[in-house]
Amino acid sequence: xxxxxxxxxxxxxxxxxxxxxxxxxxxxxxxxxxxxxxxxxxxxxxxxxxxxxxxxxxxxxxxxxxxxxxxxxxxxxxxxxxxxxxxxxxxxxxxxxxxxxxxxxxxxxxxxxxxxxxxxxxxxxxxxxxxxxxxxxxxxxxxxxxxxxxxxxxxxxxxxxxxxxxxxxxxxxxxxxxxxxxxxxxxxxxxxxxxxxxxxxxxxxxxxxxxxxxxxxxxxxxxxxxxxxxxxxxxxxxxxxxxxxxxxxxxxxxxxxxxxxxxxxxxxxxxxxxxxxxxxxxxxxxxxxxxxxxxxxxxxxxxxxxxxxxxxxxxxxxxxxxxxxxxxxxxxxxxxxxxxxxxxxxxxxxxxxxxxxxxxxxxxxxxxxxxxxxxxxxxxxxxxxxxxxxxxxxxxxxxxxxxxxxxxxxxxxxxxxxxxxxxxxxxxxxxxxxxxxxxxxxxxxxxxxxxxxxxxxxxxxxxxxxxxxxxxxxxxxx
Amino acid sequence: xxxxxxxxxxxxxxxxxxxxxxxxxxxxxxxxxxxxxxxxxxxxxxxxxxxxxxxxxxxxxxxxxxxxxxxxxxxxxxxxxxxxxxxxxxxxxxxxxxxxxxxxxxxxxxxxxxxxxxxxxxxxxxxxxxxxxxxxxxxxxxxxxxxxxxxxxxxxxxxxxxxxxxxxxxxxxxxxxxxxxxxxxxxxxxxxxxxxxxxxxxxxxxxxxxxxxxxxxxxxxxxxxxxxxxxxxxxxxxxxxxxxxxxxxxxxxxxxxxxxxxxxxxxxxxxxxxxxxxxxxxxxxxxxxxxxxxxxxxxxxxxxxxxxxxxxxxxxxxxxxxxxxxxxxxxxxxxxxxxxxxxxxxxxxxxxxxxxxxxxxxxxxxxxxxxxxxxxxxxxxxxxxxxxxxxxxxxxxxxxxxxxxxxxxxxxxxxxxxxxxxxxxxxxxxxxxxxxxxxxxxxxxxxxxxxxxxxxxxxxxxxxxxxxxxxxxxxxxxxxxxxxxxxxxxxxxxxxxxxxxxxxxxxxxxxxxxxxxx
Lengths: 478, 518
Prior knowledge:
The structure holds two protein chains of two kinds. Chain A is mostly helical. Chain A has a domain at 263-478. Chain A contains 20 helices and two strands. In chain A, strand 1 and strand 2 form a beta hairpin. In chain A, helix 7 (181-188) packs across helix 10. By secondary structure, chain B is mostly helical. Chain B has one domain. Helix content of chain B is 73%, strand content 3%. Chain B has helices at residues 5-21, 28-52, 82-101, 109-128, 132-153, 159-188, 195-204, 209-226, 235-242, 245-255, 257-270, 272-298, 303-324, 327-358, 374-388, 394-408, 413-439, 456-474, 477-494, 512-517, and strands spanning 61-69, 74-80. Chain B has a two-stranded antiparallel sheet with strand order 1-2. In chain B, strand 1 (61-69) and strand 2 (74-80) form a beta hairpin. The longest helix of chain B is centred in the middle third of the chain and has 32 residues, at 327-358. Residues 498-518 of chain B have low confidence and may be disordered. The A-B interface holds A 363, 370, 375-377, 381, 385, 388-389, 392-393, 395-396, 405-406, 409, 412-413, 416-417, 420, 423-424, 427-428, 461-463, 466-467, 470 and B 21, 68-72, 108, 111, 133, 137-138, 140-141, 144, 147-148, 151-152, 164, 167-168, 171-172, 175-176, 178-179, 182-183, 185-187.
């Protein structure tokens, strides 16, 4: 709990700092937040007292286990990288930079709670904490119409999905009388044939499907990704999606494992359609952020492979893939954020000649795209390999898994086209409009190097991270 | 364990690629020098390794193993036996020749050399790896630069279409093979990606017939697409036609052999029952390569498309050798793999030279080139002769062994007879016709002043490849004495004795060496 309290306190401090900091220094409050979060990360890694591996709090609502610790570290790293990006982005934000930072930190606290949620109340509260801060973060560029439009779209669809979820929770509670995941798991088997109970679980999944942007709840993703300020988009793509996945894992495998086992086909179909939808729709995109929006849908599909496999190896593969996705996607959005600083749009053509303007950014974007496409020796390749392995492992149990593996492979082949398109735009564009060099500040270079190191670390020396993922996933099958 | 020479062979190009990233793009001479050195040193090391390789005993030499992901049974494991020692040697020679031929690239040289070195390191890694994961990952690592090189430095109007097609075909092929390899890992139950360990384990606990019949086709067609097995071959002529010469040399010569190597190394010994039943089908498909694609090659009007088609046709012989599932046939297949590596590299290098000088490869526009281009012309004639399978070139040895081997498999007799036709008649027709139209006859006015390769540097790659072809043609025992012991083991595993006693001719071969090298 200390971690969450500290993060909340940090958010408040950032807000208060706004009163005393002179206007021209406000931008640098972001680094304060980065330093504080980095400190918390180091403390959590060294394991001083705060993270006892099997504690629960608030009558079991809040659980601190391997999975929670894994995700908490994940979220803190994501928030640090996003804050670096936000500092670079600050000149494009009209009002209240400090508020922007503190909202990111509040969203982070919501994610930390989500990582530990072991109760439907906790699940709902953490989801709302994340989503409501994101409504504001999305429409933070008040002067830009697209940003406002994105905010409104996210608000409407988010509210709709939240209402589904709260209705689902009510139905589950109404039929079983339980809200705690462990208690529910003990009685869920009796309600397996209860239609109202099943409907409740389904509604909860609808809400979570919205968070991870899985088909058929993916409609919002491209618009919001395109319109939102770039750091918000990055945090949405990484943090919010991961929060959705940790809750999905908890609900499916801790709360209602018996129901999940029956829904194998549903999960397979959703995963397959999400992969195909994301990849096919990304093909014609010219706007970078929109393209990454569709690609994030496709990646939700790949991640769902790990869920659909219903095994510990699938879950650990999912965690591993998420870790790779974190570094890859943040790297891509950081580059976009820096390149489009003086531009109105985020068209792919903005990248033209990037290798001459800034070789580091060009290399970063190339590596990010290659990792998303799943090319060795980067993180994406090993992650996809693990996911495919988990799915094929289940093949003998159900032939649907083989079809799913083939669909995933088809998706990968399709995705080569648009990822390479981005790389081609960087190095081989015909008409380069702008050749002025891009100046990078020291801190953002650090952030970029962390991302690159992360991609190579997870691709070249996967042993440590893989063991961590396996350990974390083992918390689900206690 | 000390660092294996193989680690240096595959590591040097990759390190040089990283080094090149930090060299400014306008230091052309330095970039080229680094690329040449980074392919030359591995070649020297590979020759040294080839000479040191002890042919007498089977098993892997120059091994090195570093645990990578323990819980999944993955390790960085390199080593060579008779099967891949020749392939690694061939790969390094072709890579050096390709780097030499890269003088034709005039734009964005830095990026080109980086990709070329990445591709080289990936290819050599794939052939040296004894771990299924690395085996695949290195191949994938080499494949991606191919696409980029064709897409960016390619030539012709249909460049984009060709890039698109080759990317889709090869990615699908590679990923199908990946599914097969993962399934193999999972269903073997050995919990290791290590090939020697898998072979030992499966030797003791054979795979269930059902899994064999599921996995084998995945590997056969996955690898088959990568090797342009008919009817999945259409990417090859187009892709090679559009590719810059060094890329075509490396891909057609070396990278393409990955699929064949995978079939022999992984699919045959681990899934013998499925192999037995699928080999009939493979034999008939390979006729598609030999006869149909040979026929298509006869119709070509573009020199590069002709060479591309002939390269696809040659793959048919290798498939036939594999389908025979006996010692002579599979040994022959390995020989053709190596010989064709040199040959394909040589022909694409030569056609690249001609294109560089004339700007066209339309056969009807060329003619009489032997007069202005004396060295290139002679090299071209020799390459064509090698392509027809004339004695004295390494191809002859391999193809003859393949036919001897295939004839010994009773079920393949009809196929063999038809294939010999393809080899002797069709191959000779398109090759000699190409020579007549391109090299002989009156010289059109515009070509009479073409500059030949005169200095040593320009001649080096062609000479190197020709010498290799001739050396292994005159002294095939250099290869066979290394290949035979290991292929014997693989063939024994691929022919479970309890299944069909006496059908296959493993025991009939009394002295394979003398028979192959005549």
